[in-house]
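Fold it.
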Amino acid sequence: MLITFTTITSCTTIPSASEEVLSFPFTSDSSKNWRYISDRVMGGVSEGQVELEQDGEMIFARLTGNVSTRNRGGFIQLNLASSWFNRPLMIQSIRDSEKDGKKLKGVKLNVRGNGETYYIFIQTNETRSVSDHYRASFVADNDWGMIDLPFDQFVRKRTNANGSDTVIDSKLEAKNIRSFGIMAYGRDYIADLSVSTVDFYY
């Protein structure tokens, strides 16, 4: 079942001495751009939810649940996607991000978790199905911290019918991104991941 997650992302450009950042913090303003998706859309049995919570002045999305690989499943995720009818601000901003010869080099997330491994799944104009995606992993510890994932660390993989992955030689280009997923994935475990902001940097 597809569950709508009603939180909006607002864009802030933050220049610094070393880099310029497109910043998308979670805020209390409501929107329907972010959504919760699980493997139940394909017959899996994983259970989870996304809630909007607050720590002091910081607002964050918290993804929790029980990831199960039964019935060829194995994921829960917080997803932001572009469609013919809706192009969220974050997707639009990164697709229009090339300027003055500069390209976005990667993404940073401010996260807190339970010590488990989580993933960013990205689909672009070149990926042909949900099983075809760019993927990078990170570990979310108990304390808040910034995770830095350069785009050259993302690997394009296509998941085959037998569950194995085929690696495709392809480079992730920010201007082609159409879907951004923050996921608990791939094995049986309890997920508890909080994300307060998603930043793209030059």
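Helices lie at 89-95.
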